[in-house]
Write a sequence for this structure.
């Protein structure tokens, strides 16, 4: 009567915007979460893990991702794994899932048909596998008429949208909000939304067990579900390795930076942090260069991945800045020209500002070389 509810592993997710080293680490963390979930099941006295869709990021995740997933679940053979095709990895005939059915051990159940599955001890699963990426039909509609023995606990397992989560057009794979009550379910385990959501006492999205984007309400958890009582007892279990934090900082001076960095994602180890920083404000040229050194030269190497946006952080070159470029020579004249062009704004102004900053950096670099 106790199980772990998880979903949206999306094994093989490419993280295309991240640098290569970060991509590899984030991809591996998604595989490692299989081991983490098995450990969580044991610690919570659960013998079964329900995966509510999107086990893989695509119908063709590649041999390594497929083999790693199967090997890790096979090694955790004391756990029963119930897998459901989702919209990222729908159950295409002769594809990924057919291969998995042929190679999976007895401890791994692949739900390819909408038919009740007896887990034993009075617990039955009603799975709603997706055959296509998008459908306008409710994949859980058959739950209402599903026949199971009298007195058993009925658990729905589905992947879809119980409400519109901001998608444009018709909501794909729609699920009736009252499906749990209408179908006499003791619990409805949902996947698709990557943040953890309690729709009502019977209906829950677990969210992805390893965070994969900014702005999620809560992710990096799985749900421990106990149906031994009259009502489902649901509790969150932390499973995520990486924390994704997005911040927008407005700076008036370089001295504003260090307190903001110190307050970034408190309690999270830097090596487990993925950070998106968008900075705005007006600094001197020297301050802007110092800021880039602090962020790109230090913080970026402390965290797993720093996604930095300085498009709205402008440099206001002072006479002291320009004097450091060249007191009276040709470079000073060029710096004055670039300063004037930057002040005009627009696309050309941004190019001029970037060129002026580069000129300043190269001048300081040359001075350091001369001093050696």
């Amino acid at each position: 009567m106790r199980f772990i509810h998880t979903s949206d592993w999306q094994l093989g997710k490419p993280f295309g915007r991240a640098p290569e080293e970060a991509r590899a680490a984030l991809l591996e963390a998604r595989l490692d979460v299989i081991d983490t979930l098995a450990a969580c099941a044991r610690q919570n006295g659960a013998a079964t893990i329900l995966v509510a869709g999107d086990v893989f990021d695509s119908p063709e995740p590649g041999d390594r991702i497929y083999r790693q997933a199967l090997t890790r679940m096979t090694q955790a053979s004391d756990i029963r794994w119930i897998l459901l095709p989702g919209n990222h990895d729908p159950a295409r005939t002769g594809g990924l899932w057919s291969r998995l059915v042929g190679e999976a051990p007895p401890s791994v159940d692949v739900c390819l048909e909408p038919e009740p599955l007896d887990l034993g001890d009075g617990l039955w699963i009603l799975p709603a596998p997706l055959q296509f990426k998008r459908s306008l039909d409710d994949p859980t509609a058959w739950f209402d008429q599903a026949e199971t023995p009298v007195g058993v606990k009925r658990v729905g397992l589905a992947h879809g949208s119980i409400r519109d989560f901001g998608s444009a057009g018709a909501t794909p794979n729609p699920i009736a909000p009252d499906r749990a009550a209408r179908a006499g379910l003791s619990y409805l385990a949902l996947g698709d939304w990557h943040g953890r959501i309690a729709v009502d006492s019977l209906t829950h999205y677990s969210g992805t067990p390893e965070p994969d984007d900014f702005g999620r309400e809560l992710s990096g958890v799985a749900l421990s579900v106990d149906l031994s009582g009259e009502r489902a007892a649901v509790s969150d279990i932390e499973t995520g390795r990486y924390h994704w934090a997005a911040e927008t900082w407005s700076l008036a001076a370089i001295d504003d930076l260090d307190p903001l960095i110190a307050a970034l994602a408190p309690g999270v180890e830097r090596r487990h942090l993925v950070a998106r920083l968008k900075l705005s404000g007006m600094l001197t040229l020297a301050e802007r260069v110092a800021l880039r050194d602090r962020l790109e030269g230090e913080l970026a190497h402390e965290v797993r991945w720093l996604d930095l946006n300085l498009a709205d952080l402008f440099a206001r070159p002072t006479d002291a800045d320009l004097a450091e470029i060249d007191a009276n020579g040709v470079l000073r004249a060029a710096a004055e020209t670039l300063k004037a062009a930057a002040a005009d704004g627009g696309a050309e102004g941004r190019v001029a500002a970037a060129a002026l900053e580069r000129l300043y950096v190269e001048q300081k670099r040359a001075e350091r070389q001369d001093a050696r």
Residues 53 and 67 are 18 Å apart (CA to CA). Residues 243-371 form one domain. The first strand starts at residue 2 and ends at 6. The mean pLDDT is 90.
